[in-house]
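To whoever is covering the structure queue this week,

Two jobs came back overnight. Logging them here so there's a record in the thread.

Job A:
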Amino acid sequence: MKEEKVEFENQGEKIIGFLTLPDSKTNNLILLVHGFTGNMNGPEDLYKRLAYILTENGFAVYRFNFRFTSDSFEDYHKMTITGEVDDLRLLIKEFSKKYEKIGVVGESLGGSISILGYSPKVNCLVLFYPAIFYKENIANRWSSDEEIRELNEKGVLPWVRSSGQKLYVGKKFIEEANKIEVFSKIQKIKCPVLFIHGNVDTTVNLTESERAFKIANEPKRIEIIEGAHHGFKDKNYQTSEERQDKAIDFTLEWFKKWLK
């Protein structure tokens, strides 16, 4: 296995990621799309582990940071939903020049970005606890009169990551979360789609995947991981490799079936 840093440019800003390549040539590549305030490694290194396992099984994998995502998150207030969709579409376009088949894994907000950024060049899709209903999951987090007043005055609002790191989100992102509709776009997806969700996820409720699964086109599947919270953590919100491993196994099985 080989790993190399690969960068792209979109509107003057960098998309930075790592491409892992199997020992033998492959025509299949999988993109790992991170969620809100996440990064290329995924929650508790889930994406890093997933990338290496997929590569060991013959897939090329690209895990990346969207524009304005960095270790410091100093520019995160510039992040928008439409901007991340545009980043993903650029990556799909660029990698499809070299690879015959493209797979996508999206987690949380990255799941809905993967739905909005879907194109016929995507041959297989896996959604980890996708945050499909923005008003319920995102916009309502900043809905008090005081927060709305601060947003109008400053153009940003604070957010604290689970690690304790403080960052800011921008007005345009919150406005988009109030108006962009994802649910109806699910029926436009024409490739095999797998939903994986924990049954004790209180950040993005399991009902979101269940509702989306009902209207998704075949072939489709939904896997529910017992005792798994957001990020496939346990019910106490602690890292759980056991639950991560289940999600990784389901994902690998799906790509072996539909992307090979």
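Job B:
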Amino acid sequence: MINVIDIYNTVRDLCNKDQKGFVTPEVFSTFAAIAQQNVYNEMFTELALSKKLRRSNVDNSRDKSVYKQVEEDLSYFIYETVLGDASAEIDYIEDDDAVMYDPSDDSISVLAKPSNLGKIISIRDNTVTGVRTPLELIYNSEDADRVMNSNLSSPTSAFPVALIAHNIEILPTDINEVVLKYYRIPGSINVNGSVETTLTPAYIQIGATNMADMANSRHFELAPHYSNELIIEIAKMIGIRLRDTFLTTITVNEEKAE
């Protein structure tokens, strides 16, 4: 967790040089969520680069491995959820009388993606207890059509398929329950340390004073060593907003230095 109050105070002091600009809590909170998402996305880029280091045999070993460090940070956001007959599925109109049919009355077929889904890792069949059959993930509807029309590769209970598009379509349709493993989008952490997956980081001020509202402020859901990246991201966006060339320049230089 990164304390949102510490980040706000740092950004406010950085951007308030010579009294040319003042960062309000509202402006900061608007940029905070975007900055956290940018840092989160950059972690996947760093993971890809660290794999190149491993293939080139220039990555460090054990705890000093760049690949291991990024993997460890991303593992915090790995989440599993069970989707089955009782899950929210996509309804469709059954006849001309506009009667809505609920697919969850039978077996799962088309599922809505979780609201906090970032990147899908895997999907496995959970219909039979103790049997963990992985689903082949397909991201192209044309590929899915070819699989469905093939006599050799048509999906079966032993070799199921999931078409990932706007929704998630499970094939064959007689599968009753799956486990979806994915990287979730970062949310925030409240004063009690509870994760708020649907809320973003925010600095809340008490009244007209510049005092932080500890009870209602929400902290960043990132490891502490990403504090500098957060400050750079927020300051860069505020520099553009204030048309402050000095602020924009120093944040760009900081990024290059990393």
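Note for Job B: Confidence is low (pLDDT under 50) at residues 100-105.

Please reply-all if you pick these up so we don't duplicate work.
Q.
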